[in-house]
Specification:
The protein is built from four helices and 53 strands. By secondary structure, the protein is mainly β. The protein has a 13-stranded antiparallel beta sheet with strand order 5-6-7-8-9-10-11-12-13-14-15-16-17.
Length: 642
């Protein structure tokens, strides 16, 4: 490609390709620059647009998602603090929802940010470490000068480049824009373009004529530009509207922009959708793809498995299944489990799922917070790995019988059975007792007939929880162990979900540590520890963060620190061989924790200032138990002192 053509294309993109967060009048100012993450207006598009190629818009016309390579990404998802911890991008906006800063952090904590400035509704400046761009406008709000200052680097001095714009009204309502541009190497070029209704129609320098085709909403979907009839370039874009979903028709075919790929894409009313969330279900020759349409919640499955799309080109495939729902599921019959897709992605945490109830037709109904919430449609009729919808429960009649789901609650249940709390020993109403409910045994404190206080909950599959309960739910501090994967969570809980400070551990390896909200880390504090950053006797951050410290006597602690003292949760091995897992306050064992003596004796319960204090269960190495209350390290009996 010649230099002239390259420069012409550059200016074409400069006038049409920058994105908007404010709305200049492109009819009279077709070359006005605009910052990233734009509204539909910047794309010369109007109407109820859902998707423009790989970009997705909400019903207010704001660009919110993008889909590339089968993965959908939310724009500006993270706060500045989260972006630093996760090494992701963040965005800051002003009161008019305009982008004013976007950036990310390097591994060493260096901030790379771009800032955007506005005046009188116009974009006037963009500043980054790479360059500074300034924009000047005439009284009509049209750009007349764009300057870019490139900072000095190495042996190169600071360089300023520019583009000057002049405007002339010509016949047929067109505007002629002439650009004088100075480049980094000092070259100056001149280019002139004609525009009408904000769209380029002619390039004087290259003698390019631009022709458009428009859809039923008046938006261009085809742009052809060339100096000759037999040699031309073109751009085709796919625009899907929310109104297209009123009478949707789906099929699958390759992307016409990529002639030699074997991938297929969903088409809605004969328009390609490039921003779908792709999920592969199954393996080898039985694998198939599921395509999810974000924001409108459609799952569409092609009537073809994955193998032909890998070994040969599929010209067209019809839709085998279409579900208008946010959630879907499939059964893994060999493991007696089910997998839920939520917004097109596999759900990794099922702890919010409660007991199963059943419709009169036998379909399971999953409860959340004791409320029937989700119906697994046609569950017992579904074939292995066949996608089915998860429907909302809307008050349909239920059978009386129900079954309690385990914490690994994507484990399917074969038949409904009635389960209640059955007391095996002690006082399971208001006191200490041992009770069973379904496959779970509870040992510890009870109140009003529910686990409440210090509880050891053990399941038949080997999973267990040791920690605090409140009114039948995990609330407070505690440790959960999954036997099948040898994983632990040590930390805070709220209504049965991980919430607050916590540590994820697999075997002897720390996987992550930080602050969680609804079972998901919102702030990771364990990065330095996981990456083995060493400073003296500390691995990680032993001042204010998460780290491991090795003491002179051979002991070590791994956990959270505040002002160089253990705080929140830690795993400590003492120099004498004893160990402790639990909560610290100001460097002292305080709150719930478990202490393991080298001789095999253990204590599970409450602590205060390094001493057993409150309810606890002491198990000697010979298996005998002492259950009750402690005060300042001394056992006082099975009742609290008044």
């Amino acid at each position: 490609m010649s230099k002239t053509i390259k420069l012409s294309l550059l200016f074409f993109l400069q006038c049409l390709g920058l994105h908007a967060q404010y709305e200049p009048n492109f009819d009279i100012a077709p070359c006005n620059p605009v910052p990233e993450f734009h509204t539909l207006h910047a794309e010369h598009v109007t109407g109820d647009v859902y998707a423009l190629d790989e970009y997705l818009y909400d019903k207010n016309g704001k660009q919110v998602l993008t889909g590339l390579a089968g993965k959908v990404t939310e724009f500006c998802k993270y706060s500045k603090e989260e972006a630093k911890a996760l090494r992701k991008y963040y965005c800051l906006r002003d009161e008019k929802d305009r982008l004013i800063e976007r950036g990310s952090y390097d591994a060493d904590g260096t901030l790379n940010a771009t800032q955007y400035f506005y005046k009188n509704g116009l974009f006037i400046k963009q500043v980054s470490k790479w360059n500074t761009r300034n924009f000047e406008y005439d009284k009509k709000g049209r750009i007349i000068l764009s300057t870019t200052i490139h900072p000095a680097k190495d042996d190169q001095p600071e360089v300023e480049t520019y583009t000057k714009y002049t405007y002339q009204d010509i016949e047929n309502g067109e505007i002629k824009v002439t650009m004088e541009s100075k480049y980094y190497n000092g070259d100056i070029t001149y280019n002139t373009y004609h525009y009408k209704n904000g769209l380029i129609t002619y390039s004087e320098r290259n003698k390019y004529t631009y022709e458009y085709k428009f859809d039923e909403k008046g938006n261009w979907v085809y742009n052809r530009f060339s100096p000759k009839e037999d040699r031309f370039s073109k751009k085709v874009r796919s625009i899907i509207y929310y109104s297209d979903f009123k009478k949707p028709s789906f099929h699958f075919a390759p992307d016409p922009r990529t002639e030699y790929t074997s991938l297929i894409y969903p088409y809605l009313n004969d328009k390609i959708f490039r921003a779908a969330q792709r999920t592969i279900i199954g393996k080898k020759n039985k694998a198939y793809e599921v395509f999810y349409f974000p924001l409108v919640n459609y799952y569409v499955v092609p009537d073809v498995n994955l193998l032909p799309t890998l070994d040969g080109r599929v010209t067209r495939a019809e839709a085998k299944a279409v579900y208008n729902t946010q959630m879907a599921y499939y059964r893994n019959i060999s493991t007696n489990k089910f997998v839920v897709l939520d917004k097109g992605e596999r759900m990794s945490d099922y702890s919010k799922f409660g007991k199963w109830e059943f419709l009169e037709n036998g379909d399971p109904v999953i409860t959340v917070n004791k409320i029937p919430t989700y119906i697994l449609k046609d569950y017992y009729q579904a074939k292995d790995k066949e996608l089915k919808p998860v429907l909302p429960y809307n008050g349909e009649p239920l059978k009386l019988a129900s079954v309690v789901a385990s914490t690994d609650s994507n484990q399917e249940k074969k038949a409904p059975t009635t389960t209640t709390l059955i007391c095996k020993k002690g006082n399971c109403i208001d006191g200490y007792g041992i009770a069973t409910k379904g496959t779970i045994e509870y040992e510890g404190e009870f109140k009003n007939g529910q686990p409440h206080g210090i509880i050891v909950a053990t399941q038949e599959n080997g999973n267990y929880y040791r920690g605090e309960y409140a009114y039948g739910k995990r609330n407070g501090s505690g440790t959960y162990y999954w036997k099948e994967t040898d994983q632990y969570y040590i930390g805070s809980w709220k209504n049965n979900v991980q919430h607050g400070y916590g540590i994820n551990k697999k075997g002897k390896k720390i996987l992550n540590a930080g602050i969680l909200d609804s079972n998901k880390f919102t702030l990771s504090l364990g990065t330095q520890y996981v990456n083995k950053k060493i400073s003296g006797s500390c691995r990680g951050n032993c001042s204010n963060g998460f780290g491991g410290y090795r003491y002179r006597n051979g002991g070590q602690s791994v956990g959270f620190w505040k002002n160089s003292k253990l705080s929140n949760y830690s795993l400590t091995v003492f120099g004498n061989g004893d160990s402790y897992v639990g909560k610290y306050v100001n460097g002292l064992r305080s709150g719930f924790g478990e202490y393991f003596w080298k001789n095999g004796t253990s204590y599970t319960g409450n602590w205060l200032n390094n001493k057993e204090h409150g309810f606890g269960i002491l198990i000697y190495s010979n298996g005998q138990q002492k259950v009750g209350y402690w005060e300042n390290g001394n056992y006082i009996g099975t009742s609290k002192r008044s």
